[in-house]
Specification:
single chain; mainly alpha; Fumarate Reductase Cytochrome B subunit; two-stranded antiparallel ribbon; 8 helices; 65% helix
Length: 221
């Protein structure tokens, strides 16, 4: 624990990525839902009824920004502080990690006391960030660009780099279904993530929500 009771955890690039990433997920989730369950066809000239076209454009634009953000975040994990690396690996072979995991799990289940403060990600947060958020994000990017490659057609860089996903997973329809399931996995993650942050802000020993704005985590007085 920091001797000064305050630690600079989230550097400016991490905070910027967090909020851009959150905005991308919101746009991707809403637009993706309507792409999967499109609005009824409207009669008339196509140029006057292009709503689904705008929704698709928003989805593709947010997808590109989301991909660039993940790559930028991976770069910052290499050059940023040690907290910046916690999104990309979990010390699965560490006994101390699993002991702390059990302590935090009991706390989240309301059957244990408030654990000692951890200025970075706690063990459960770290686990879910890697194995739910990061892996789901990578799958959504791979499958999304594979589906995009169908529209871009043979020879496009999207089809050349990601087209292998379609035969691997049994065809376009299967990939679309899994991509849609990934949407709900990400929505569930966001809901739990927000709940955990608010809960920790109320019951925990450190400020949580303010830290992703200022970068600093402090012990509550």
């Amino acid at each position: 624990m920091s001797e000064h009771h305050t630690e600079y955890v989230y550097e400016a690039p991490v905070r910027l990525w967090h909020w851009i990433n959150a905005s991308c997920i919101l746009v991707l989730a809403v637009s993706g839902y309507f792409i999967g369950s499109p609005l009824p066809t409207q009669p008339g000239e196509a140029s006057a009824n292009f709503l689904m076209g705008y929704i698709r454009f928003a989805h593709f634009a947010a997808g590109y920004l989301f991909a660039v953000g993940i790559m930028g975040r991976a770069y910052w994990a290499l050059v940023g502080n040690h907290h910046a690396r916690e999104l990309f690996w979990v010390p699965l072979t560490s006994k101390a990690y699993w002991r702390n995991f059990a302590i935090w799990l009991r706390y989240y289940l309301y059957i244990g006391p408030i654990p000692a403060p951890i200025y970075g990600h706690n063990p459960i947060s770290r686990f879910t960030m890697v194995f739910i958020f990061l892996l789901t994000s990578l799958f959504m990017l791979l499958s999304g660009f594979a589906l995009y490659g169908e529209g871009a057609q043979m020879g496009s860089w999207q089809e050349s780099l990601f087209g292998w996903m379609l035969p691997l997973l049994g065809g376009s329809n299967n990939v679309r279904t899994l991509h849609h399931l990934g949407l709900w996995m990400m929505v569930a993650f966001v809901l739990v993530h927000v709940y955990a942050a608010v809960r920790e802000e109320i019951h925990g020993r450190l400020n949580m929500i303010g830290s992703i704005i200022t970068g600093y985590k402090s012990l509550k007085k």
